[in-house]
Amino acid sequence: MGKADQAARRWHKDSKIYAISSYPPKVDAQGRAPSWLYTYVSPSGKSFASFLVTGGKVKPTRQGSLPEKDIKNLVKHALPPQSKLLDSTQAVKKAPKFESYLKKNPGTEASAGLDSFSSKKPAWILNTVSRGKRIEEKVPAVSGGSS
């Protein structure tokens, strides 16, 4: 998150991250992806912005204004600091069905996303669909949490 956080703070100092996702959906069996999309909200700017990180380079991708109620909801669901979150490689190790399927089927399209909307607490959502088979696992993203 480091470079994306820096870009978001340049965009608005009060930015808060609320979602992370692999983009495009190319997560491997170790939980690595070629690019990650980080999405932030700014209460003072009444807006959101997304930053794509590929190979250590940050590129702004989308920005837009939002109604006040949406801003409040996104701030409410902001993710905790990176130091408290599992990274994608740790999350995949805690998702045995997902990890095993990708190891047995290399190159299968798979995605990973982290947010606080899909569960009561921040969670990684790992999923893949191949040959009609869908596997989805949710992994608590904060140590000791439950989704």
3D structure, described in words:
The structure is a single chain. With 147 residues, the chain is α+β, with helices and mostly antiparallel strands. The chain has one domain. The chain has four helices and seven strands. Strands 4-3-2-1-5-6-7 form a seven-stranded antiparallel beta sheet. A hairpin with a 2-residue loop joins strand 3 and strand 4 (57-65). It is globular and about 45 Å long.
**Residue share in helix:** 10-25%
Strand content: 35-45%
Would you tell me the overall average pLDDT?
Answer: 92
Number of domains: 1
What gross morphology would you assign? Answer: globular
Summary, kept brief:
The chain is α+β, with helices and mostly antiparallel strands. It has 4 helices and 7 strands, in the order H-E-E-E-E-H-H-H-E-E-E. The protein has helices at residues 2-11, 68-76, 88-93, 96-104, and strands at 16-22, 35-42, 47-54, 57-65, 110-115, 123-130, 133-140.
Label this structure with key terms.
seven-stranded antiparallel beta sheet, alpha+beta, 7 strands
